# Entry
Amino acid sequence: MGGLAYRRAVIKLSGEALAGEQPFGIEPGAIGVFAGEIAEVARLGLQTVLVIGGGNVFRGMAAQASGMDRVAADHMGMLATVMNALAVQDALERQGCETRVMTAITMREVAEPYIRRRALRHLEKGRVVICAAGTGNPYFTTDTAAALRAMELKAEVILKATKVDGVYDKDPQKHPDAKRFATVSFQEALEKHLKVMDSTALSLCQDNDLPIVVFNLFTPGNIRRVAQGERIGTLVQGGMP
# Structure
């Protein structure tokens, strides 16, 4: 497998990653950069599942805070993730990478419905599976969707690609003395409210002993490094760090 540390992985991409330097929207240039790296690890043999957020287009919780019904807002957020998934699919296929977009909300004209066994067959055939529309249910984030898909598809790790280089004890953009963790336990992340994933996703990973690696998506070569097991970012796992 080209020196890979994992056979199958879920890569969680935030919607903001697709915006690049813009405050919102989709920036094809930014997508093209990390799409090339995802295509590279797929060619090396990593069976890859992408779970994509939608915060660059629409954020359900923010809309709820402005008075919108939470269920309606969450459904709109799910649709935003489908737009992002199609953009990433286009970028990956430009790199010669075969893909399938699978959605938790049925929309057969633009994507396949998410069916676990079908997703497994795609992975076994070397296709990158892009999961959109979260879990298909309101009140659940795309973090939770990533954890759920990882369990269902028997992934060995969740690779959470972010704009920062790991998990800190406080916001490093606001606090220059913020400390980055090399490793942290699920329990500590939950107790200290560290911004790894939401508590539902973290608890699900803890219960199923599924490690999470949080790393900077925008450092060139990081996706390959983390796929090959290089210790970058922060490893979140069971037990004491």
In short: The chain has a mean pLDDT of 91. The first helix runs from residue 28 to 44.
